[in-house]
Write a structure and sequence with these properties.
The chain is of the alpha+beta class. It contains four helices and six strands; from the N terminus they run H-E-H-E-E-E-H-E-E-H.
Length: about 140
């Protein structure tokens, strides 16, 4: 419900929907091996149990949905990658503070850091399904 309230409020202010319409998001599966070892390490998993999909609209970062399947359990995470390490560090610290005060207000931050196989950085959080949240 929080995402829907935010979207409605943003629409009332600007006249446009700021949050992406999930029907317009191109979902393309990427091979598991494309997940950087630094992210696999943060999740304590390997590429054999992991898939990654494009999720959201990219601007200065690349948003993705990471799905880990282990022993029949499925865990889902939200991942952003990009070149601005300071931005991810700041967002991680902010999410930690907000989540500590009001856990239902934002996703739980998992990790941030430098990618191993490229010059970029990443931010990893709990995945919140905006579609399900906005229907509530």
């Amino acid at each position: 419900m929080t995402a829907k309230l935010l979207r409605d409020w943003e629409c009332s202010l600007s006249g446009d929907e700021v949050l992406p319409n999930v029907d317009d998001i191109p979902l393309r599966s990427l091979p598991s091996k494309s997940l950087d070892p630094a992210i696999l390490g943060a999740l304590s998993t390997d590429s054999g149990t992991t898939t990654i999909e494009a999720y959201g609209q990219a601007s200065s970062t690349i948003p993705s949905k990471v799905i880990i399947t282990k022993c029949g359990n499925i865990n889902t995470y939200f991942l952003k990658t990009g070149s601005d390490a300071a931005m991810f560090r700041g967002e991680f610290k902010s999410l930690n503070a907000i989540h500590a005060a009001v856990p239902s207000l934002c996703p739980s931050p998992i990790a941030h850091g430098k990618l191993s196989n490229s010059p970029g950085s990443f931010l990893l959080t709990e995945f919140i399904d905006i579609e399900k949240t906005s229907d509530a």
